[in-house]
Write a structure and sequence with these properties.
The structure is a homodimer of 322-residue chains. Chain A is α/β, with parallel strands linked by helices. Chain A is built from 13 helices and seven strands. Chain A starts with 13 loop residues before the first helix and ends with a helix.
Chain lengths: 322, 322
């Protein structure tokens, strides 16, 4: 499967490289279940990836992110591109297909064989959602999807980490979401390459855009070239007002950021984000195994609840025994 | 300082136990900076804690959480209680005092010596915000604050983890935040002990409350007793409509959950959340040191960006070398 079978362990990756949807879904399930075979397959797929363009979409809950994503799918499909979508919902316990409420709206694309949508949710206490997101995006890349859209539902630290792995990050907001200073937090703005004011026909769109421009002025010189796009995204049609402009802004960012001498530096930042998450997840797996050997987390926590032991000493002893 | 000086290392915790604000702030800074002395102090403080009642407040951005928190501070101050507040903002790069925009509104309480407000923000790539939150809440407990309010700004996986460490979790929403299914995600609902419909004078409050009731009906039998409270929180006054009812609902939950036979089990769940975060953070520290010895994360990520190495093999080798 690879040029150097000594370097990458053997895995049957041919169906995935051929774009087989069932094989892809199976590997994504294995990633979710943290199977060793998934690691093997990902390593083997690596030399075949790097062609997909990853676009992150984040922003306030209620800003209409999934409507924007839906319109973007229609836009890229109109250009004949194959589109993979990862929906990251850290507040839901369910991974899989279109289980999540707002995912159902995207089902229009479910019949299109050139659109692949995968929802990811949180799995247990020690996290690892960002890691799964990177791994799944990698599979979509290997499957030949030219556009890979990553949409986050929540707005937290993990979601910002997810966005660091995108080539272009789109932050969506809407007018009238309470105070604007609260609506777009500075950290969210920091990762934005393109800003979208969605539902731009609503009252207050001018003020929201003005506020965003002021916030952009406060940024570092190399991050001032962020474009602000107004959209009135309409579900299931690429003609949603502003979607063509949004796609053009994304291409403009791609041109600025990913061609020329800065590209390898940016690629390093992306890789660092992915590596951090992978290391974090692998360490968490090890900690879980160590705790299981000591009766499990609950048993250990019981001693803290009864105030027989303090959590800091306990945590140090668990980490020391790894 | 402790009954058993052999068990807990020596640390000058007397000023903190006496409620000295400067000593408390200094320790919180040391926690933020991950100083070894902070660990020593926390261990020494542990036998003196367990008296503060921790209330988590989370919910949609724009729901008016900080206004609700502000009114709650006024309420508890009216009862003569001392109040500590931790504001968790994973989307901001700044820790410390009232740096964050919406924190400024709470400054009214800044002159009150019996109110202590601390903002926490994200620090670097490998996280650790939840850990800092637990540690800071522990210091506030040791300082003698009877009510400890933890407010999260974001809504993500980390924020939900933070909420697991509260005695009572309050989830705040508002009418008209787009589709309600999007406004309150199931995971957020899962951690809710009390639900607040804030800005209840807005159109749609009846529908929002009805939707929440339906969502509660779908929950497990032991989690159906969640109360829904309507508030019209007014900044800086305990008379904000519904705040007394909210406090009563919190007390009712405290009575149900934290007295009687279930209390130790619940305490174990809280301790498990704290332990998980601590272990995660300690492991991340170790990973950072290991990577530093190999030229740092950026140097390692460079090999991935140039596609000389795949991230999975690299991450495994780093974890294996710990």
């Amino acid at each position: 499967m690879t040029d150097d079978p000594g370097k990458f362990p053997k895995a049957d990756i041919a169906p995935i490289l051929a774009g087989d949807v069932r094989a892809g879904a199976r590997l994504m399930r294995d990633i979710d279940d943290r199977r060793e075979t998934a690691m093997t397959a990902l390593k083997a797929l690596f030399p075949h990836t790097g062609k997909g363009y990853v676009i992150g979409i984040t922003g306030n809950p209620g800003a209409g992110k999934s409507t924007v994503v839906d319109a973007m799918i229609a836009h890229y499909r109109g250009l004949g591109e194959r589109v993979g979508v990862v929906c990251v919902d850290p507040t839901s316990p369910f991974s899989g297909g279109a289980i999540l409420g707002d995912r159902i709206r995207m089902q229009r694309h479910a019949l299109d064989p050139d659109v692949f949508i995968r929802s990811l949710a949180t799995r247990g206490h020690l996290g690892g959602l960002s890691r799964s997101t990177f791994d799944v995006a990698h599979v979509l890349d290997a499957m030949g999807y030219q556009r890979i859209l990553i949409e986050t539902v929540g707005v937290g630290q993990d979601e910002i980490e997810v966005m660091r792995a995108a080539h272009t990050t789109v932050v969506v907001t809407v007018p009238g979401l309470g105070d604007d200073i609260q609506a777009i937090k500075s950290g969210l703005l920091e990762v934005a390459d393109v800003l979208v004011v969605n539902k731009a026909d609503r009252e207050g769109a001018d003020r929201t855009e003005r506020d965003l421009m002021q916030m952009l002025d406060l940024r570092a010189a190399d991050r001032k070239d962020v474009q602000i796009v107004r959209t009135i995204a309409t579900r299931g049609t690429a003609e949603g007002s502003g979607i063509t402009e949004l796609a053009a802004s994304i291409e403009a960012h791609r041109e600025r950021a990913w061609t020329g001498p800065g590209a390898i530096e940016r690629g390093t930042v992306r890789a660092a984000a992915q590596l951090s998450e992978l290391i974090r997840a692998l360490l968490a797996d090890r900690a879980m195994r160590t705790m299981a050997a000591r009766g499990g987390l609950t048993e250990i926590a019981h001693a803290v609840a009864e105030r027989r032991e303090d959590p800091w000493t306990l945590a140090e002893s668990i980490v020391a025994s790894l």
